[in-house]
Structure formats: C-alpha cells, structure tokens
Amino acid sequence: MNLEKFGSLFTLFFFQAEVTSVFTLATVTLYVAGMWGIFTKCGLKGWHALIPCLREAKLGEAVGMEKEGRVAALLRGILILAYEASLFTTDSSAAANSLDFLTFVKLFIDLVLLIYMVRLNLALCEVFDRKKRWIILWLLVECIPAMLWGWLKKYRPLWKAEEMKSDAATYFSGSKAAVLDQGLTVNLEERTATEFFKKKYLLRDIHMYIQPGHMVLLLGGSGAGKTTYLNAVNGYEKAKAEVVLNGRNMYKNYKDMQYDIGFVPQQDLMRGSDTVYRTLMDAAALRLPSAFTKAEREARVEEVMDIFGLTPVKRNLVVKLSGGQRKRLSIAMEFISNPALFILDEPDSGLDGVMARELFQQLRQIADQGKIIIVITHTPDRVIDLFDDVIVLAKDSNRTGRLAWFGPIDEARVFFGKDKMEEIVKSVNRTEEGGEGRADEFIKRYAENAQGVAQYV
Predict the structure, then answer these.
(1) Taking residues 194-220, what's their average pLDDT?
(2) By residue range, what is the domain housing residue 110?
(3) Which of 9, 143, 177, 268 could lock 207 by a disulfide, CB 3.0 to 4.6 Å apart?
(4) pTM, to two decimals
C-alpha cells in the first residue's frame, strides 16, 4: 500500500474524510483531541477517543444512548473494512464492478452512520446543556465544537456517564392510586416523546389520589416535568395514564369534561381593550352549556365578579387593571364554569407579598368549597400554611421526571429533612444547578415507602 492510500485510510479511520492533506490531518488531530477532553469530562477514559469504533461506542455511553453508540461503532467498522477492500482492488473489469458495488455500499453506510452521529451529537448537546443548533457546527466542522467542549472550562456536562447507569432510576413504586367516586386520581405510567426516532421518557411512575377540598403545591426544579405533568392531568397532552376526576375518566370523556378543569397559565390571554364585564361574558359564552340563557350567563358573571372582588371595576378596561386584579380576572374566567379542579401556573408571578397572599387566601376559600387546587409557585414558603399537600417532581439519573414525594406538608418536611419548601427543591436539584443532587435517593425512598422495592425491568 503506498503512502497516499495509507493516508486516506488513516483519515477515514479517525475522521469521516478521504482527502489526504495537511489541513485534513490537522482537523483529524483536533477532533480526536477534543473528543479526548469530552470523554474525560464525562467520566470516561480520554484515550478511548484514539480508537475508531470504540470512540463511537463510548460517545453513546457518554450520552446515555449505548445501543445507538454500538450501532455507529459497527457501521464505522464496516466502513473501514469496505474502504480497505477498495484499496486492494485491481484495475480489471471484475474488480471495477466490485469497486462500483463497494462504492454503493460505502455511500449507503455513510448515510446511515450520519443519521446515527446526528442523534448522538444532539444528545451530546443536551448533556452539555447547549442549544440544538450546535448540530450544524458538528456536521460541518466537528473539530471546532469538539475542541471547545472538550477543553474550555465553561463547557461542562450536566451529568457523568456513570450517573446514567445508576440503579436509582430503575426503582418503581409498583402500585397504583385508588380510583374513588370523588376527588382526583392520577395513575401515570409514562409520558414519552420521540426525538430522531428515539423514545424519550419525560415522566414515569406518578401515582396519587387528591381529596376534594385540598390545595396542593407542585414543586420541582427546572426540567423536572411540572408543566408536562399538568398538561397530562388536564388532558392537553395525553400520556399513558388514567386520570379520573370525580369518578369520570378524563381521557375517555375529554370533550364533556374539558370545562370541569380550570387552567390558569402564567401569562394571561385577555384583550386589554375589553372591560372586565365583557371579558367575563365572553368566557361565559365559551364555557357555560349552550342551554344557559343570556340572563343566566349574566347572573353567573355577576356572582363570579362578587366572589373575586371585581364588581367595583366591572366597567374598567383590562389594560387599566392592577397586577392583582388581572390575576383575579384570569382565575375568574376559569371559575365561570364552576370547575372541580383548578390548575394555576405561577399565579403570584409579579405580585408583591401582600397581594400574593391575598390571592392565595382566595384560592384557599375556593378549595374549601370542595374544589381541588394545584398550584406551581416559585415562592411557596410565604404562603405554605394555606396548602394541604405537596407534590415534588425530580429528574432521575435518566433525566426522567419522577415522583419524589406526594403527601402532607409536615410529613414532607420530615421526609426530606428540610423546614422550607425551597430547601426541598434544592435537595433534589442537580449539583450543576446549585442543588444537592439527591433526587435518586428520594425517588428510591418514596418508591420503597409506596410498596417495598419494585425494580423495573
């Protein structure tokens, strides 16, 4: 084999290139050096980056996609063997036909390998907490992101490779919540999404029964799945789950039950040019049964305005309302249909302590009427005395949202060994997020308390 052929094989061996030049060899060296640094940061042996096939396999291990990594390694091996075969092909007619076939095989394998490498590099973006648009640079000049992520201190993985193999993520409760005629039962087995043909678990093994009249706090760090969980409960994004409200299955009867659940988002969707009264009348027209007469809708609007203290400002434009008044109006719009379940995403956002407490006291009064209230708030400790229970969601080692606790507030303090709710969130947050990194510990303990130790296979 001459030096040119050896150089071509060398660059194919370490990089996806067949052009032998000083520039190509430089990019090969930079890429391998960068991957050495990335592997080291991910808790793997850096020298694995030197060995083709093993490099792809270890990349899969670094991002929690070992199966994909092994397939990419196999494809790389086949590609190398196919290219070696082409180097030894003579110029005869039979050899030329063989070369054409090998060229076709190589192009096909190149395409499949490219797909797998895109998936692995997208997962690497997630591990390093980088936006997916980085994939463009990985595809065009992969030595640059490899060197940046591998050797600059500001690029750090959110977790190590060994954390993804932790047994903590395999423990499941093995039990379901009781389905009763009154209250809310959630038996969520899993909520998944598909990214580049790979099934990704967003939520798993979340089971609970919430009694009527209970006001529940929903806690969890960024990415723990709070919004995904709420969307699964209200039927907006269905999961593999059973959601039963007052004896009726939410998923099977969604059309009939959609107004039995009131959802108040963080950002209101009201028109500023409408009055308070017109806003509520429009809500009544949408949410109340068509059998309601105009007089009945007006009576309901007047009743709701009185409940939320909006009667004095009924003729005011929405744009002229204070922050607290706008929040109360947002809630009043959902309350028009008299729902059994209220879900609120940060209703106290932008409110001072006094206004926030007044709002939560109003929610407490609604709960005392037999309603179920579930609230997300980032400042829970200033109003924690108004809540009955707390749900704590946390990301396990596989980056899946799991249930770390559901139950009374005082028992949660004992379970986590923390006095404040914000300290509980910190305990389950990852160390890279300023937390204590104890999510798997509490997920396992809660699963054990639910029903022994059930290991998922």
Answers:
(1) 86
(2) 3-159
(3) 177
(4) 0.68
